[in-house]
Amino acid sequence: MVVEANKKKIAIIYATQTGQAKTIAETINDEAMSNGFEPVLFDISQFGRKRPLDEITDPVVFVCSTTGDGEVPESATRCFNSLKKLEAESNHSFLKNFNYALLGLGDTNYTQFCNGPKLFHQKFQNLGAKCFYGPAWADDGTGLDVEVEPFIEGLWDALDQFFHDIKQHSNHKVQINTDGLSDQLNKLCIVNPNLSSELSVPEYIDNHLKIDFFDEEKKNFNHDDLKSLFRNMHPQSSSGILTATVTSISQISDKTAEKECYDLKFCLDEKFEYEPGHAVDCLCPNDDYEVEQLIKRLKLEDKKDKIFRLESNNPAKKLGQSHVKLSQENKLTLNAFFKYCVDLRWNSLKKNFFRFLSEHCTDVNEKNRLLQLSSKEGNEEYHNLVREMHTSLLDVLNTFKSCQPPVDHLIQMLLALNPRSYSLCSSDNQLEFVFNLVKFKKESTRTYDRFGLATGYLHRLKQGNNFYLMNRKFQNFTFPTDEDKPLVMIGPGTGIAPFIGFLRSKKEKLQNLNLYLFYGCRDPNKDFLFKEEILSQLAPNLKLFSVSFSRYVHDKTNGSVDFMDKYHVKDTKYVQDAIKFYSKEMVKLIYELNGYVYVCGDAKNMSKDVFNCFAECLSKELSLSNQDANAYLMEMIKTKRYKQDIWA
């Protein structure tokens, strides 16, 4: 595409929580340069009362994510609060010269989808700003690329039109040959002959990084090296990087349970303040086997322990610049960089990543297949074969054997490795959390057996081992201070963790509190977590404790369980079944007595089902329409009376 000599200036602003919005903004920045624009990239944390958004006169491309219970990202809080204050002061024309395109990021597994960017959109509109393109709402539940790609593709024409310089920018099209190819679609590498031979693919992102290896070697990274590296990777951490020492780790599910659940207790090297409901962000490295095999696949074994340094030949390009900075601030080797700094699992494998790999294949069929997976036409296969299967970078390189990407370009395209959050079930001085060991068997697109990145790492820890974590800055699951109001807690599986911590902290006065707990697991004899503690110390002192079993039939011929008659509602398989059984009481608690509802656990199914279950109860007991019942629950979310700590 021809770049005009007279470039048009644009501002790109990102508001990010985990780094997704930043990466997309960097991609837009780099593609803007190729499309004849002169972009300037901003972190929204740079704006606020002292530096208001109205200083920007160029058109703005705003990429914003969502965090917590539908809040704006932490980095955006100061700017958002300044807009709220301006709105309250009736400055309805404050942003009259602010023109923006909006791309919001969210996840439909969560109740308030894309609410963070929607809040900004509303404030912009109320202050007189004009949205010249979008808004578009990208869903991480089905794949951000489904909305991100067409948004970026149409952005350049929208900007041209804004500049009164309308041009026709053709889609990036490639032609592939599918004649005579197999129609088997059960493997990642088989070209799909049913897709069009003309594909709409992302723009190829040129490499602007150069890697230099030095003679100096470094085979081991000690405690100080790692803390320094992690501090540079996470400068925004309010707590700093904390060193944890494992005091014990034990399996708390039965050996025959479908899921292995572990309880990890630890102590810290410095004072740590927390409340029940808080979570920690664990810094979990990539698996040594994957790192070793990746370096071997890239034919770089002789350089794996050599110190390297990255340089950018174009500082205006933003993708990969954080990696450049890391290599210049730390003595890094390839082995350490791939282990600690970048995500080698499916999170890095965006559509433009497959487009990048396609240019480095010598086999034409492999190139064509990678182009298909990067294309709009291949959305369904990309979702099914990459996202749903949790395909890794090593899987892809093992499958596409002729693909040999240059390491500096590969580094540019890889995303930063994000921490993993775990809810504490701690009380007093004992720090503790639980996790299920995630397992991925070798099948379909997966070319080797493996554990989940974080849970595999935690599972390998032994007593006395160190690991690193941060206190999560944004703690949105703190419990209410008003102890007179009823509190309904729903936490199946490991979602019980924060409630265990909370109940332990209130142990001396449980009988005087208005507390209700719904728990669920598969089998009372295999994976009832904290069973003895709950049944002997906690449940007898609650207003209600109800436990449901999804894989167990209450049948005395199948072995009697002594607590069933007291705490289990017959035929309830899931927590929502038990909530429906107590429908009248639940509605009284949350509607008449203005009680609280706290939900912790799986976002994909459980949290939605529980929300819908409460809506059904409200409709049934109060004769409300489904719309009014949902509106009441949404108001509870806004007023922090309905909180969720959920994960996909």
Could you characterize the architecture of this molecule?
With 648 residues, this protein is an alpha/beta fold. It has 21 helices and 23 strands. The strands form six sheets. Strands 14-11-18-9-10-15 form a six-stranded antiparallel β-sheet, with helices on one face. Helix 2 (77-88) links the parallel strand 3 (60-64) and strand 4. Helix 2 packs parallel to helix 3 (115-126), helix 9 packs antiparallel against helix 10 and helix 20 (606-622) packs across helix 21 (626-638). The longest helix has 18 residues, at 145-162. The protein is globular, with a radius of gyration of 26 Å. The chain starts with 7 loop residues before the first strand and ends with a strand.
Low-confidence stretches: 1-5, 165-171, 180-186
What's the N-to-C terminus distance? 39 Å
Oligomer: single chain
Mean pLDDT: 90
Question: Which percent range fits the helix content?
Answer: 25-40%
Largest sheet: number of strands, sense, barrel closure: 6 strands, antiparallel
Determine the number of helices (DSSP H or I, runs of at least 4 residues): 21
Rg (C-alpha, Å): 26 Å
